[in-house]
Amino acid sequence: MKLRSILIITIIFIASYSVNAAVPQLMNYQAVLTDTSGVPVNGDVSIQFRIYDAEVGGTQLWTETQLVSVVDGLLNVLLGDVTPIPYSVFDGSDRWISLQVAGDPEMEPRKRLVSVGNAYKSYDSDMLEGHSSSDFSMATHDHDSRYYQQSQLNTNDGNVNQTSDPVSWSKLKDVPAGFADGTDDGGGGLALPYVESTSALEAFKIENSSSDNYAKAIYGQISSTTPGGFSVAVRGENKGADDLGIGVWGSQSGSGYGVYGTSNGGYAVYGSAITGTGVIGQHGSTAGTDPGVHGITRSTTSFATAVYGVVNSTSPGGFSAGVKGENKGENSNGIGVHGEHAGSGWGVYGRSPSGRGVYGSSSSGVGVYAVSSTGAGVYATSNTNVALYGYRTATNGTNPGVYGRTNSEDANAMGVFGLVNSTSPGGFSAGVRAENNGTGPLGVGLYAAHEGTGWAVYGRVPSNSSGYAGYFSGRVQVTGTLSKGGGSFLIDHPLDPENKYLAHSFVESPDMKNVYDGVLTLDGNGEGWVQLPDWFEALNEEFRYQLTAIGAPAPNIYIAEEISGNRFKIAGGKANMKVSWQVTGIRHDPFAEEYRIKVEQEKENEARGYYLYPELYGSTSNMSIDRAKQPGFKASVEPEMQEPEQQGQ
Questions:
Q1: What are residue 382's DSSP bridge partners?
Q2: What is the pLDDT of residues 43-91, one digit of tens each?
Q3: 8 A C-beta contact, residue 501 and residue 515
Q4: Fewest CB atoms within 10 A around its CB: which of 31, 341, 568, 593?
Q5: What b/e sequence results for 334-364 when a residue is b if at least 16 CB atoms lie within 10 Å of its CB, and e otherwise?
Q6: Closest Cα partner for 362 from 383, 384, 389?
C-alpha cells in the first residue's frame, strides 16, 4: 500500500524540565497520513523515521522504527523513545526529517526542522553565564581575584611578553605547588615544541625534532613498581562504533617499527578483542616479501617459540585453530602455511593426542606442502588416529591427496617412505597401502612407473623366507616379458581340497614356443586333415610334429602335407583309426620379434661376482645381486627423528 504524509502538524521538543536539567533527547512529531488517493489511514503502521543533514542525499544522522497507531490519518509519536536522539545531531546546521512506511519507499520531499521550545536553552548555552562572547573580547574588562588582572599587564597593548612589565612565575595564581617556582618543568613532562594543528583531523600534535637515539615525541611512564591491574603508561581510546576506528596508531616512515613493544617477562605486545581480531598485522604494499606479522625469538631454550597461537577454551567450536594460515591467491604456487627448518628438525610439526597431527585440504592444489633441507618436510604423530592425513575434496582434477617428492640423487632416495616399525605387527599390516574404491573398469589401486632400466615396482623378502616378494589375489596381466627362477600353478588338491594343495611346474623352453595338440579320426583311406585356427601361421613358424596311433600300431603313419593354409594332413593309418597329434611353433608375432628372449646373457658389471640365489652356491645372502644393485638397501632408511619431549608444554 503506497502512503504519503500530506501535512506536518507540529514538531516540538518536550518542554517539561527543570531549570538545570539537560535538554531531553526527545521530539514530538505529528502528521497526517493518507494513501495515494487521499483517504486517511487507520490502524497500526510500522514507520521508520530518519534525520538527515541535507534535503536531498546527504548523511543519515539518526533513525528509529516505531509501530504507530494512526487514527483518521493522524499520527502522534515521540521520536527518540526507541533510540534517543544524540545531542550531536543538532549542531546549529539545517536538518531534515523523512518517513518510510514498511513496504513503501522513503517519502519525498523531506521536511525541514526548525527551532522551537527547548531550542532556546541551546541558545543560552552559547552564552557564557549570560554574557555574550563579545564581552570577553573587549579591550577593557576585569575578573575576580582568581585570575590574573588586566591592570597587572603591560598597559602598552595588553601583551604579556613585554620586557617592561612581563608576567612572572610569582604572579601566577591557583597553580600546583612547585610549578610557579621560577623553574621550567615542561621539559620532563611535555616534549616541546608544542604545535597546534590547524587540521580538523588532529586535536593537537607534539613534535620532537631531536636526532638523538631513543628520542621521544610523547613519553608515558608509571613510576610505581606495584601499579594496579591494567595500569597503562600510554593509552589511546576510540569511542567510534564503526569497523575502521583505531585506538593507538603507530607509524614509521623508514624500515623500523610502526609499534614496538618490549617486556622483561610478560607480553611485549598484547591485543585483546571481544568479537574482532586481537592483533592484526598487514603488509600494505602490493610488492615485496615482508610478512604481515613477523615473530622472532632469540632464546636458545627448548620449546622457544617465535609465534604462538592458542585456543584457550577446552571445548572450542568446530574447526577452531591455534594458528591459521590462509592464502586468497588463485594461482598454482600459493601456500596457506609454510614451515621451514634449516637444521635436521621439522619444517612443520603437528601433534594431537587423538585427532590428526597435521590435516591438509585442497580443492585443486596441494593439501600439505613441506620442504626441509636435511630433516623431515612433514613429521606427524598420533596416539590413536591418523598421524598424517591428506584429503583432496574436489571431484575433478588430477592433483593427489598426498604428494611426496625428493630431488636427491643418492642411492635409496625416496619420494614417499612408509614403515611398520613393529617386529611383530598384525596381519595385513603394510608399510604403504594403496586402495581404490572405484568400481569402474580402469581403476588402479597402486600405480608405479619408472623411466629408466630399473623396476617400477620392487618387492623383496629374504631368500630364506617363506614370504612373498609379491602377492596377487585375482587375475594378473603382464604386457611385457616375464622372467622367473621357476614357476608352477598352485590349486586346491582335487582329491583333498580342504587339506592339500596341488602344484605343477611350468614347461620351459629356450624358444618362445607354443604347443598345440588334439585327436583326429582318420577316414576310410586312413587319412585326415587337422584344421588349425585362422591365426595359427600369423603367430607361429618353424613347426614340429608328433603323431601317436591309438588302439593299434600304425608304423606307416606320417605327415602327408605340412602346415599350409592353417592345416596339415596325416596319412598312412588304418580306416577310422584315432591319432593323437601335437604341433609346436615358435612365435614370430611383432612382440616376439621385438622382445625375443636371449637364452644366454652376460651379467651386468655391478652384478658380476654375485648370485641371484647365493645360498644355493654355498655363499651368503650378502653376495646376492639384490645387495649388489641396491647398496645399503637394508641400512636404516627411516628418517632419524624423535618426537620432542613434551616437558614444559
A1: 352
A2: 999 999 999 999 999 999 999 999 999 999 898 999 999 999 998 888 8
A3: no
A4: 593
A5: eebeebebeeeebbbbbbbeeebbbbbebee
A6: 389
